[in-house]
Design goal:
Blueprint: H1 3-29, H2 38-49, H3 70-75, H4 86-111, H5 114-126, H6 128-131, H7 140-160, H8 163-179, H9 186-197, H10 205-233, H11 243-251, H12 254-257, H13 267-271, H14 281-298, H15 303-314, H16 320-327, H17 334-357, H18 365-380, H19 389-412
Helix pairs in contact: 1-4, 1-5, 4-5, 4-7, 4-19, 5-19, 7-8, 7-19, 8-10, 9-10, 9-18, 11-14, 15-18, 16-17, 17-19, 18-19
């Protein structure tokens, strides 16, 4: 395939992805209620657009850090209408989702050839576990875009081993953490192995340690203004958000450890915890966190079965229909959730084949790291498919590689990809 033809197909597929996402918003989301975490992200984006940076949208004069800051900031440019910003915010999110599709195609092109890149773009364009999030005012789409940037940066660094690319990789991880705090874990599961054991691992040990330090400092430098701001504004210690206590108490309580709700998160558990009147977000979070830790310590024998339940829910192998119903509470239609389940389990075997065959010059570890991080997040917190968002990016890329490799192997024998990775040229 010629470069000109590839670019035309690439642009056409990305345009089709954009058109579908815009139509999805206009057809199904114009009158859709803003529910769940969307309420905060939308309201916080409006306060930012009005020049009141990260103040509570619902309590005048109070400060807010309900979630990591990137999503509300990313949606703020479409938040000029204080009364009804939702459609504009969703349309902007759809554009970010389109950028995710393009980014997946570019990552795949970096690793493989033009045909595989186009297959990855086509899969990403129609993959429900991406597009149904692209119509919501939530953190999953900015997180997916940040994950794409982390992939780019890590593969560039693995090829160049330059200090500049180590800095860029660290900044990408920091940006991901500003979208979802748990994505900072990529610094451990992806960056550390790539720096110490990746391509050219025979390089001088001191230089590898230096690059690891540089990447870590870059990530810390990016997130530290937010963390410092939180330390100054709140009564108790706050790092990325005040959501940790609420998350932990909702997933370490009787409703989440026993019965039909096992492995999920339950807001009712937080309602049962007494909190002093007038307590700020950080105090509430600290109280919830202490209650959750106490409950967890008293029920350690139940943790293994609860973790299995969380993974079953999050990986769409248990309580699948129940999860489709629960997804409606965050604005995802049951049909979209079920399409996502079918597509997920169609792609997983292809992605597994792509990882096993891996006819790519550069290492597969970043893809595996994204999958590992998603599994760890689900196991540690609670089971919901949207926590797979980092893994979804890897699954699409690896699924495209697996599909093309399988077709070529069936048609022409074990030939692998027709062209080497860009990094190998």
């Amino acid at each position: 395939m010629t470069r000109v033809r590839y670019r035309r197909w690439f642009g056409g597929l990305v345009l089709a992805a954009a058109v579908w996402r815009v139509l999805y918003v206009l057809m199904f989301k114009v009158d859709d209620d803003v529910v769940g975490d969307q309420i905060y992200y939308s309201g916080q984006a409006v306060t930012i657009a009005n020049g009141k940076w990260y103040t509570d949208p619902f309590i005048p004069g109070a400060y807010a850090a309900d979630h990591a800051p990137l999503t509300a900031l990313a949606v703020a440019p479409a938040s000029w209408d204080d009364a009804e910003p939702f459609v504009a915010q969703r349309l902007l999110m759809a554009m970010y989702g389109t950028a995710v599709v393009a980014g997946i195609g570019l990552v795949t092109r970096w690793l493989t050839d033009r045909v595989t890149s186009l297959v990855a773009v086509a899969i990403a364009a129609v993959y429900a576990n991406l597009w149904m999030n692209d119509a919501l005012i939530m953190a999953e789409t900015p997180s997916a875009l940040a994950v794409v940037l982390v992939l780019f940066a890590s593969y560039r660094f693995d090829l160049s081993r330059s200090t500049r690319d180590a800095v860029v990789m660290g900044l990408a991880v920091g940006l991901a953490g500003l979208a979802r705090a748990e994505l900072l874990l990529l610094g451990v599961v992806l960056v550390l192995p790539m720096v110490l054991f990746g391509q050219h691992a025979s390089a001088d040990r001191r230089r590898r340690v230096f690059h690891l330090a540089v990447a870590g400092l870059a990530a810390v430098a990016l997130v530290s203004p937010w963390i410092i701001r939180n330390q100054v504004r709140f009564d108790e210690t706050v790092t990325m958000s005040t959501q940790d206590g609420l998350t932990l108490v909702g997933t370490n309580c009787p409703a989440a450890f026993e019965g039909p709700g096992r492995g999920f998160w339950h807001l009712s558990c937080a309602f049962a915890v007494p909190v002093p009147d007038g307590a700020d977000q950080s105090v509430r979070s600290a109280i919830y966190r202490d209650v959750a830790v106490d409950y967890l310590g008293d029920h350690l024998d139940q943790v293994p079965s609860v973790v299995v339940a969380r993974l079953g829910r999050g990986l769409s192998v248990w309580q699948v229909d129940a999860m489709a119903t629960l997804n409606q509470g965050e604005g995802r239609e049951r049909l979209a959730s079920w399409i996502g389940v079918v597509q997920f389990w169609t792609l997983v075997p292809l992605a597994a084949y792509g990882l096993v065959a891996w006819p790519v010059a550069q290492r597969r570890w970043p893809m595996l790291a994204l999958i590992l991080m998603s599994v760890l997040t689900i196991a540690a917190l609670y089971g919901i498919p949207r926590f797979r968002i980092a893994a979804e990016v890897a699954i699409v890329v690896c699924g495209a590689i697996g599909l093309v490799s399988l077709v070529r192997r069936q048609g022409t024998g074990p030939a692998g990809l027709s062209r080497p990775a860009i990094g190998a040229r």
